[in-house]
Amino acid sequence: MSQQNNTKVAVDTQISESTPTVYVSTPAEEPEEDVEGLKKQPKESLITQLARHTVAFVMDFMETIVVALSIFVVVYLFLVQPHEVKGNSMEPNFHNNEYILTDKITYKFREPQRGDVIIFKAPRNPDVDYIKRVIGLPGENVKVEKGKIYINGQLLDEPYLKDATTLFPGSFMQEGLPILVAEGEFFAMGDNRPHSSDSREFGPVARNLIIGRAVIRYWPIPVVGMIAQPQYMLPSVSDK
Questions:
Q1: pLDDT tens, position by position, 27-84
Q2: pLDDT tens per residue across span 155-192
Q3: Domains: count for the chain
Q4: C-alpha span between 178 and 44 (Å, rounded)
Q5: What domain range includes position 123?
Q6: Burial class of residue 230 in the structure, from the number of CB atoms within 10 Å of its CB (0-12 exposed, 13-18 middle, 19+ buried)
Q7: Helix or strand or coil: residue 145?
Q8: pTM, rounded to two decimals
Q9: Which one of 40, 177, 186, 215 is least enclosed by Cβ atoms within 10 Å?
Q10: Is the dihedral of CA 202, 204, 210, 215 positive or negative?
């Protein structure tokens, strides 16, 4: 006699009577491109394209100019400044219409030295810039005697000169009388001694009038180069 299967399965009459229906949605069809509509869109005219590119070019150019000018202003105000030599007071070493670059940064870290070619505001007319050579330093006695320069009684050898050092009647300096250069001042002379208005005439130059040191001659082309610094056999004031 076979065993009866006592396993019972519960049946939900609601489920069995109502079988759910599953609906599957199909992907929405992409709209066809309106080829005719695209064809109807107006193309950008050549003039419009040219105008757009021109504006972009001008804006890029102006940006470059602004950056360049900013760099130039910083360099001009704080680093170097171009100067044109006017007159013959520095001949035979500098000539009229030559162009030089003036170093404006060096003297922020050290004082001018003997032999430096300096640019400074003229003591009697601050609107004019002079170019001269430093001869006497603060604390030194400078004397002109028989066409020669003496520093603290010692002859100053100046091989870069063509003519002797002369004195003019009524000038600040007199023949054979030493001038003491005060602190914060420098005695400057032009290399063309017979034709130079300098410290012999108006006295030592105040430190705050000095713009900088001539370092490079950049025009005309045949004389382009660094400006040489002469060497002297005199001890400086700090060595004494």
A1: 556 555 554 554 555 566 778 888 888 888 888 878 788 766 666 565 555 689 999 9
A2: 999 999 999 999 988 899 999 999 999 999 999 999 99
A3: 1
A4: 85
A5: 79-230
A6: middle
A7: strand
A8: 0.71
A9: 40
A10: positive
Is 182 contained in some domain?
yes
Structure token pair of residue 136: 């006497």
Total Cβ atoms within 10 A of residue 21: 5
∠ CA 11-14-15, rounded to 5°: 70
**For residue 7, what pLDDT is reported?**
40
H or E stretch including 15?
helix 13-17
What is the CATH classification number for the domain harbouring 196?
2.10.109.10
Asked if residue 22 is part of any domain, the answer here is: no
Q: Which of 25, 40, 89, 148 is catalytic?
A: 89
Active site residue 89: yes
Single out the catalytic residue among 25, 39, 121, 132: 132
Q: Specify if 41 maps to a domain.
A: no
39 counts as catalytic: no
Q: Tokens in use for 222?
A: 């045949």
What per-residue string of b and e applies to 60-72 under the rule 16 or more CB within 10 Å gives b?
eeeeeeeeeeeee
Measure the CA–CA gap between 132 and 111, rounded to whole angstroms: 16
